[in-house]
UniProtKB/TrEMBL annotation:
GO molecular function, one term: peptidase activity
PANTHER family in the cross-refs: CARBOXYL-TERMINAL-PROCESSING PEPTIDASE 3, CHLOROPLASTIC (PTHR32060:SF22), TAIL-SPECIFIC PROTEASE (PTHR32060)
The protein, known as: C-terminal processing protease CtpA/Prc
Source organism: Arenibacter algicola
Domain called Tail specific protease: residue spans: 330-525
Cleaved signal peptide residues: 1-20
UniProt-listed CDD domains: Peptidase_S41_TRI
Assigned keywords, A-Z: Hydrolase, Protease, Signal
GO BP terms in the entry: proteolysis
Length: 550
């Protein structure tokens, strides 16, 4: 062996020795433990079948992990832990299933090869479990009926949980992180790498100073998955933002809060609030400063939805009034505005017509009010109109399949799904779902326009996708909520809960609706001047489109 080769060999041997002896921080050890604990929970045949109290196993392993100083010491503890869980039989069926064609944008077990944290022996143990994993019915996760979204099951609630119990805080973080790691269909679309999120959140969950601090850390964690379904609300987070509202609702336009209407007309009058008032500052802070300051606590798949979800963060508080600066008739003014508990408004959503005929013989349908039993009567009433506008800037009833049967001349595919593979967590199957419409089924041959915005979410987006298959359908509006797919609930220690989009929803060409929202033909957003003039600019654009015959 020549001198150069000998030097290279000695270099790599020395490097490997240093890696093996590198001192691990407590955060490093918790990061690796979260990975191993979650993997065993869903992959180890005995653990995944519910034969162990897996939370208790975590609590028992944490003190041992804390004493480990190096990768080898950490790995030896994990190996002994794995061996204590019982024999794993060879799984010939697992090999066959491993060769299936999967949707694998979320799948990532590369952490097993992290030479800074995992020894070769531990890596081999983990890979053996992957190749001989749990099959059949699982204890902690299943596929729901109908939409077949994931169901997270049999998790302990810990009703007596207190925020200063460090073990339960760690459990909460590990449980949530691994649920997302293995069963959130849109993990690959997140803005932040999910491993990086775990590293960031470990010290936050370790070092909380109060119950509020803990709840805000949880809220921040949930917001990081970029899902409009992923709300997290507790009495403590509500108190943080404030349970008292002003008497008006509003829309954020150009970093200003523009009044759209009132929760209570009398209280709005008492406080001299008018539709079209443009609020620029609240308690001396600009609207953009408030939005940016709260951004990590406001959930949403995209910016349009995050702005929508700021409804409780701009003017809310615990005091009886708030100082505001606003524009009215282009004059900048300031005053105090009263704040009230929401129940004091006695607010009732206005009852809207299910359908009507606009000027120039154009039909208009409010899908937020239309019931399935109304569809045939509605279509009969509007059959002679020159066009129909379906307003989906709301949450529609289950009318999509009944309506689309009037709009298609032939069956068309409108949606594909990804569904989690419970027997190979982290992997998904990509499935063509269904066609809508019937051969020679076109019953309404004129133009159809769909109206959408950030309030078009989930089933609203699914409805729009379905109706877009019609022969002459145009979609007008602004970015939708980007949260498609049936909702799956997660239980967290302390009786807390949150949700995720539980299946992946795609257009037939593979385009995600998640985060992106549905496809638009024309983008139109309300303007401040339009609100001041009492105009519905999106509806106006739809009418112009119809009249122009575009």
């Amino acid at each position: 062996m020549n001198l150069v080769k000998r030097f290279i060999l000695l270099f790599f041997c020395g490097t490997n020795f240093l890696l093996a002896q590198r001192s691990l921080s407590y955060n490093d050890k918790l990061f690796a433990t979260a990975k191993v604990w979650g993997f065993l929970k869903y992959y180890h045949p005995n653990v995944a079948k519910g034969k162990f109290d897996w939370d208790k196993q975590l609590f028992e392993i944490l003190p041992l992990i804390e004493k480990a100083n190096t990768k080898d010491e950490f790995s030896k503890i994990c190996i002994a832990w794995i061996e204590s869980l019982g024999k794993i039989n060879n799984c010939s069926k697992c090999l066959k299933l491993s060769k299936q064609d999967y949707f694998d944008k979320n799948f990532d077990l590369s952490w097993m090869q992290d030479s800074l944290l995992i020894s070769n022996e531990l890596h081999d143990k983990l890979k053996f479990i992957e190749h001989n994993r749990a099959l059949g019915k699982q204890y902690y996760a299943s596929i729901g009926k109908g939409a077949q979204n994931v169901k997270i099951e049999n998790e302990k609630v810990y009703e007596d949980f207190t925020w200063d119990n460090r073990n339960l805080r760690i459990l909460t973080l590990f449980r949530y992180w691994n649920n997302i790691e293995y069963f959130f269909p849109y993990k690959y679309q997140m803005d932040e790498d999910w491993d990086a999120v775990l590293k960031e959140m470990i010290p936050k969950f370790l070092n909380v100073n109060s119950e509020l601090d803990y709840h805000l850390s949880l809220l921040e964690l949930v917001v990081k998955i970029d899902d409009s379904h992923a709300g997290f609300f507790t009495e403590i987070t509500k108190e943080y933002f404030g349970k008292k509202y002003i008497a008006a609702y509003y829309k954020i336009i150009d970093d200003k809060a523009v009044v759209l209407g009132f929760y209570n007309d009398s209280l709005a009058l008492v406080n001299d609030i008018q539709i079209g008032d443009v609020f620029t500052k609240v308690n001396g802070e600009s609207i953009s400063q408030i939005i940016n300051g709260n951004d990590k606590y406001i959930h949403g798949s995209n910016q349009a939805t995050k702005l929508r979800n700021n409804n409780y963060s701009i003017f809310n508080g615990s005091t009886d009034s708030v100082e505001v600066e606003y524009l009215r008739n282009n004059i900048l003014q300031s005053k105090k505005v009263g704040r009230y508990f929401f129940e004091d408004f006695n607010y009732k959503r206005p009852v809207k017509d299910k359908w009507r005929i606009l000027e120039n013989n154009i039909g208009y349908v409010n899908l937020g009010s239309l019931e399935r039993d109304d569809v045939s009567g509605m279509m009969d009433s509007l059959k002679n109109t020159k066009a129909i506008i379906f307003d989906i800037r709301n949450y529609p009833k289950n009318t999509l399949y009944s309506i689309v049967s009037y709009l298609n001349s032939e069956p068309k595919e409108f949606v594909n799904f990804t569904r989690p593979v419970i027997n190979y967590p982290g992997r998904y199957t990509y499935e063509k779902y269904m066609k809508v419409g019937k051969a020679k089924g076109l019953k309404y041959a004129n133009r159809v326009v769909l109206l959408v915005n950030e309030f078009t979410q989930s089933f609203g987006e699914f409805t729009a996708m379905c109706l877009q298959t019609g022969d002459q359908v145009t979609t007008i509006g602004s970015q939708t909520a980007g949260a498609d797919g049936n909702v799956s609930k997660m239980e967290l220690p302390g009786g807390l809960s949150t949700w995720i989009s539980g299946i992946g929803v795609f257009y037939p060409d593979g385009t995600e609706t998640q985060r992106n929202g549905i496809k638009l033909n024309y983008e139109v957003k309300p303007s401040i001047s339009g609100i001041l003039e009492g105009r519905d600019e999106v509806l106006e654009m739809a009418i112009q489109h119809i009249e122009a015959g575009n």
